[in-house]
Amino acid sequence: MKSNISIKRRLSTMTHSRKPSYWKCRALLLSFLVFFITADAGTPVRIFERIKEPREGAFSMIVPQGWKVEGGIMRLDPTMMGGPAQSIEAKLDMTVKQDERGTVMGRTLADMRYADVVSANPMLAGMFPPGSNYNGMMVAPCPSARAFITQMAFPYVHPSAQRVNVIETNPASALAQRYQQSLATLPLPVTPVCDAGVVVLEYSEDGVVFKELWSAVIVNWGQTAAGMWENKETRFMRTPAAEFEQWVPVFAAMQASVQVDPKWLAGEIQGQMIRSQIVIDTQKEIQRIEREMVEHRQRVNAEVQNSMYLTLTGQEDYLNPFSGEYETRSSELGKHRWVNDLGQELYTDDGTYDPNIDPDLNIQGFQRSAARP
Question: What is the C-alpha separation between 32 and 39, in angstroms, rounded?
Fold first, then answer.
C-alpha cells in the first residue's frame, strides 16, 4: 500500500544539527552509553537495547539506549469506571521518550470502549447525553479514525498545543481491512465496521514546533452491541519539526521489534475468559485461541508498520545470529547492523567499525547481523 505521506527517503544525522555547546554537555554523558556515539572515523552509531513492558512483562521491544519508558499495562477497576465495559482485558498506555520533556517521543494509547447511545436507541438520548457514562463507557457518537485522532485523542494528549495544523492524512485501508477480516469470523449477526487512518500534524507546544504522526483503528460494533465502538492501535510519534525525517526509521525499528511474551498472553486469555464468563472445556481450546491471537497480532502489527512507517523508509530483513530468525528493520538506520545476546542492536554506515573494540561503548559480544541476500 502506498502512503499519501510525501516524505523524502533519506536519513540525516544529528551530529551536524547541534550547536557546539550542546555537544559539550552530551560529552559528560558518554559513560551512560548515549544513543548516538561517534566512532573514531566520525560515523554516527545508533544503539538500541531490549526492554520489557515495565508492569507485567507483557512484551519486549527495543528502544534507543538511554531513553525513558513510562506507563505500561493497566487494569481498570469496574467500580471506579462506573461499569465493567473497560475491565475485561488488559489495556496498554506506554510512552518511550528521549528526555523528560518528551522532545522526541512515542506513545501507545489504551484501547477504550465508547457508547453511541443515540444511534443504537434514540429514545435513550435524553438519559445518556454525550459525555455521560453508560456501563463504564463514555457516551459519544462513533467518529471516523481521522476525527478520533484530531478531535479526541490529540486534544487529550496535548491540551496546551497551539497553532495545530493537519498536514497530511492517509485512510490506511489495508489496516482497516485486516481488522474487518478478523472480525468477520465471529458468530455475529452483523459484522462490525472498521475504519483506520494515519494523520500527520504540526503544532507548537512550549515554544517548540513539533511534527507528529498518528495512527488509529475504529471498530464500530453498531446495533450488535447496543452502539458500542472502540479505538484500536492508537499511537503516535513526535519530534521537533525539523528532525522528523531522521527519526522515522528509529520508530519503525521499535515498532517492528515488539515480541509478546507467550506465558503472559496465555494468562491474559484465561483471565479474559473468566471476566467474560466464558467457560472453555479443554486446554486445547485455550491453546487454539492463543495461537490465533498471536497470528492476528503479527498480521495487524505488520499493517500498522506499513501504514505508519514502511512506506516512509527502506526496509531490510536481517538475520539475527543468536536466534537464527530474520528481523525487519529500516535500512536507513545504517548500512551495517550488529547484535548481541542481550538484545542490543547497533547500526552504523562505517563498514570498518567494530563495537567490540570501541572504548566508548565498552560492551563485548556483538556479532554482525547480515541482510537477507
Answer: 16
Buried b (16+ CB within 10 A) or exposed e, 331-365: bbbbebbbbbeebbbbbbbbeebebeebeebeeee
The predicted-structure confidence for 213-261, as pLDDT tens digits, reads as follows 999 999 999 887 889 999 999 999 999 999 999 999 999 999 989 999 9
Which pTM does this prediction carry?
0.80
Give the HSE-up count for residue 326: Cα atoms under 13 Å, Cβ half-sphere.
8
Q: Output DSSP code: residue 313.
A: S
Tell me which CATH code domain 53-316 carries: 3.40.1000.10
pLDDT greater than 80 at residue 266: yes
The label of the residue with cell 539475527 reads 320
DSSP element (H, E) containing 199? strand 193-205
Model pLDDT, residue 270 = 81
Q: What gap in Å lies between CA 239 and CA 202, rounded to an integer?
A: 10
Q: Is 350's pLDDT higher than 80?
A: yes
* Cβ proximity of 245 and 10 under 8 Å: yes
- What CA–CA distance (Å, rounded) separates 100 from 282? 48
CA-CA distance, 145 to 365, in Å (whole number)?
45
| Residue spans per domain, the chain | 53-316
Q: What is the mean pLDDT of residues 146-160?
A: 98
Task: Extract the runs of DSSP E, i.e. beta strands, from 87-134.
Answer: 91-97, 105-108, 113-115, 133-134
State residue 225's pLDDT score: 84
Q: Do residues 105 and 98 lie in contact, with contact meaning Cβ atoms separated by under 8 Å?
A: yes
Report the Cα–Cα distance between both ends of the chain, in Å, rounded. 24
Secondary structure (DSSP) of 206-244? TTEEEEEEEEEEEEEEEGGGTTEEEEEEEEEEEEEGGGH
Q: Extract the C-alpha cell encoding 11.
A: 536519513
Q: Express each pLDDT in 70-88 by its tens digit.
A: 999 999 998 999 988 898 8
Q: Which residues make beta-bridge pairs with 67?
A: none
